[in-house]
Amino acid sequence: MEPMKILFGKCKLFQKTLRLSGIFLQQNGMSQYPTYYIPPVYKKDAQEELIKSGEATKLVHIPTRAALSDQTSSLAHDDLVNLFINYCMKDGLKQIARQIVEQSFQSIKKIQLEKYHKCESEEDKQKIELNPRVVFHKAVENCKPVIHLTPIKRGGVRYQVPVPITDKKAQFLSMKWLITAAREKEKTVRFHLQLARELIEAANNSGRVVKRKQELHRQCEANRAYAHYRWS
Amino acid sequence: MILRRTLCLLDPLRSSVLLNYPGVAVAFPTVEACMFSTNNSKPDPIDQVDKYGKNISKAMKSYLERAHEHDEFMKTQREEFQIGKRHLANMMGEDPETFTQEDIDNAIEYLFPSGLYDKKARPLMKPPEEVFPQRKAAEFDETGRPHHFLFYTGKPNYYQVLHNIVQHINDLYKYENTMLRKGLKPDPNSTLELSGYQWLDKMSLENTLVETLGDKDYDCFVTAIERLSCLPYSYRVKDFIFQYTKPLMNQVQTYEAPKPQYDSEGRAYVTTYECLRKTARGDVTIRMPGTGNISINGKDITYFEDIQSREQLLFPLLFTNMQTKVDIECNVAGGGPSGQSGALRWGIAWGLRSFVDKEMIEKMRLAGLLTRDYRTRERKKPGQAGARRKFTWKKR
């Protein structure tokens, strides 16, 4: 009788899980969450803003998705840096990618500190940004293009047509260019060091990546005659 | 003993009415009165024919015959079920009188273990009323005249609902006009708040109406009821609107934290079992007051070598500012570092509910700490290189 009872217990457990899985009856493609689940607000300041504006009372009855495994409320966390780590990643080796980006931030700090201490006047010292995260944000902002070229076929000829781009695409291109620029280096130089240099240069609105952006803008300017192909 | 009954009873009146639905029952109360068919106490169909003579229509006659047949069939089925239940109880060595449906299900699962994936394909034994769905009672009287004024639409219940919605809309328009004439405005405090609700999905609407609906029908219903709920005075028909909604979330599960127990040192503790993420399984014990000690499988936080996992482990503690107020002991097995830390993160957050106030629980919920992450690796598909990746295309 004993094993039977255990089995009955298991049956009951199974029923419980079944009832739980009933929540997921409403399918949303391959997603585990139904469509009405909202993404989590895991930052404390973002939550306080929601509470202040009164949005939070509306969200009380709406279930949230679980926070992802790279999201935390810690002060060291930054969304854009996280994204950048993911763009640096090769073959899903996130641990290594994160390590490299952190190393490059360390190098930024070192380089900037060195510059800072070499400066003699107080004014020059003020100009040097010491926070690597701010440097990174500036670099990404400076490398964002506002327009780009897409090939459009008209009468059997491919024209490079200048087209405005969305903010997300611009951000992606800027980060991608930063990474490719850092990968074009001599074999003796480490990636994280080169990345640090590129980031600092881009933050100062100079360097290869900013040049690449300007080159793209120049091409767009040259091809402005084709702009009407976008709609005709 | 009948264990498995197929649902393919050939019966033209299969798609039937469950008369206990409140909204619809109000809509046409006469249906209940005409439920003479499936009741055994009513006179035989032959008597009916005698009584009404030539007046009774052929359709009515055949309907009565079918109803009679069905009643007989259900009667035998019910008897057989009772006998089968007694047999089963005897086989399991339990009292047949107190043998419940749950016991039956368990016994069937024990005696006939099935490896079939689909739950519908597994053996079952249920009362015949559940196996053979209730049949639609006659929607027309003895002379063949339908009771419901929308009978000839083919979906009287559905169109009745739409009709009611429009009626309510018109009533509210009228009411709004009278209020405007009086110079009054709708009460801002009692506006209808539907943010936590969604409309009944098509399946459950079909079940409540007991009619099959097309996608267009359902869309019509949704647009109609949304229009009703948008009106400024829609809170006056709150009850009607809420019949067709269901809440998005089970609040009780999130907010009702267990009361902490006390150990020999007098410290409050809560243990959360079944913390799971990917293939990792674990349990978490939180002790209060503490000093922020963490032990995972006997080691401290260096059990996780990568920083992301450590961050994950500390996420709920940092979020609630409890990192120096509690001690945490956990056991995990299976999976990798990411899965294990995810499992523990959920366990810690779930256990911390007992030590924080309700506002903080709501914040944790909004931060996605209290939601179970059921996502797992997507399987590889045949004919493809991976879950989504296709093989390199070669012309030949």
From TrEMBL, chain A:
InterPro entries in the cross-refs: Ribosomal_uS7, Ribosomal_uS7_dom, Ribosomal_uS7_dom_sf
Q: What is a biological process (GO) this protein takes part in?
A: translation
Protein name in the entry: Small ribosomal subunit protein uS7m
**Keywords, ordered alphabetically:** Mitochondrion, Ribonucleoprotein, Ribosomal protein
SUPFAM superfamilies hit by this protein: Ribosomal protein S7
User: What is the protein's quaternary organization?
Assistant: Component of the mitochondrial ribosome small subunit (28S) which comprises a 12S rRNA and about 30 distinct proteins.
| PANTHER family, A to Z | RIBOSOMAL PROTEIN S7 (PTHR11205)
Tell me the protein family, please. Belongs to the universal ribosomal protein uS7 family.
Record's GO cellular component terms: ribonucleoprotein complex; ribosome
Gene3D superfamilies associated with the record: Ribosomal protein S7 domain
* Residues covered by the Small ribosomal subunit protein uS7 domain: 65-224
Q: Which domain of life is it from?
A: Eukaryota
UniProtKB/TrEMBL annotation, chain B:
Q: Where is this protein found?
A: Mitochondrion
Q: What segment(s) does the record annotate as region Disordered?
A: 377-396
Q: Name one GO biological process term.
A: translation
User: Does the entry feature the keyword Protein transport, yes or no?
Assistant: no
List GO terms (cellular component aspect).
Answer: mitochondrial inner membrane; mitochondrial small ribosomal subunit
Give the keywords, sorted.
Mitochondrion, Ribonucleoprotein, Ribosomal protein, Transit peptide
Fetch the InterPro entries from UniProt.
Ribosomal_Su5_D2-typ_SF, Ribosomal_uS9, Ribsml_uS5_D2-typ_fold_subgr
What GO annotations for molecular function exist for this entry? RNA binding; structural constituent of ribosome
**Entry-linked Pfam families:** Ribosomal_S9
Q: What is its main location?
A: mitochondrion
Q: Which family does it belong to?
A: Belongs to the universal ribosomal protein uS9 family.
Which PANTHER family does the entry mention? RIBOSOMAL PROTEIN S9, SMALL RIBOSOMAL SUBUNIT PROTEIN US9M
**What is the name attached to this protein's record?**
Small ribosomal subunit protein uS9m
Per the UniProt record, the source organism is Phaedon cochleariae (Mustard beetle)
